Amino acid sequence: QVQLVESGGGLVQAGGSLRLSCAASGRTFSSYAMHWFRQAPGKEREFVAARKWSGGTYYADSVKGRFTISRDNAKNTVYLQMNSLKPEDTAVYYCAADREVSRVTQGVDYWGQGTQVTVSS
Q1: Is 107 exposed, middle or buried (0-12, 13-18, 19+ CB in 10 A)?
Q2: What is the pLDDT of residues 28-71, one digit of tens each?
């Protein structure tokens, strides 16, 4: 059974940092593109960042320069380092995996259950 389990969410003040982790199990994701999406209350789930198995990275304009996605294939784990956090970054953050990089939610193969990030002003 494939599982993606996120951790590391929490409450942080604006300007602070958090690092999210996503541990994958049930299969090897080394050849998959690993993603982070987020969903704020009342809004659609949106793309945040992705990293291909080959190392290419992709970011939403809203997080570029503040967030960094990385992965440890040996540990089957992907990370999202979030710096200079803003109240508008408040959302549930979801880890996802797909064979290709996708900036939309439709058709993405695997999803985690999400972890809450709250940024206070």
Answers
A1: exposed
A2: 888 899 999 999 999 999 999 999 988 899 999 999 999 999 99
* Sign of the torsion angle spanned by Cα atoms 93, 98, 100, 104: negative
**Cβ-based neighbours of 57, under 8 Å, separated by 6 or more:** 49, 50, 51, 69
What is the H or E stretch that residue 67 is in? strand 67-72
Q: Burial level of 18, CB count in 10 A (0-12/13-18/19+)? A: buried
Number of Cβ within 10 Å of residue 9's Cβ equals 18
Phi, psi of 7 (to 5 degrees): -155, 165
